[in-house]
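Trying the structure run again after the queue cleared.
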Amino acid sequence: MGNTYPKDHRMARLQLAIDSTTIDDALQLAQSAYPFFDIAEIGTPLLIEQGLAALEALRERYPDRQFLADTKIADAGHLEASSAFRRGAHLATVLGVADDITIRAALTAAEEHGAQIMIDMIHVTDVRQRAQQLEQMGVHAICLHTAYDVQGTGIDPLAHLHDVREAVQCPLAIAGGIGLDNVQAALDMGADIIVVGGGIATAPDARRAAEQLKRIIETATGHVDTP
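Done. Tokens:
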């Protein structure tokens, strides 16, 4: 499937989080934002409602994009990651709070399928230390994720980014509460993958929002590949 996250971290990517609950709505959002995203994330709400059929539908429509299944695996790492990869995911997420055995099993599945594992750090207590452990295990990317349910409590979604960037070399994603108002700050702190859902989906003009985000990322990292 190829390398989703390049070794040159400054080639930052925009990941569109598709948290719709129907395939039709998911396709509509992707159509609105295309081609101004690099990775389409099949969000957990969409997976719960529609299963991996949603991944297949979106990948069939947009074969030139990368696809992440936000599986948030906590157990049965090899089995669940393999399911996502067999259905066309280039990446699958595993929770950072999962047992190391589960994470290693998911990594084995990724190796078998030529795919990658992103670790979701949601609710991890010592983010820096765990990130270092995960990098040593060979994970492909780490996502610093501010939980949806706490985004309105005043938590800064960028709070741990600088600290973790200093501690690890692997690609870092930032998710939860990211939009036009803080994307530049995230890039300045070293984020490699900008994950945006509501900032695009709820914008008055989803296409314009996606294009603006993509242009900021391209300008900041000196990489332009979208028409």
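Strands lie at 13-18, 39-42, 66-73, 91-95, 116-120, 141-145, 172-175, 193-196. Worth checking whether this holds up in the mutant runs.
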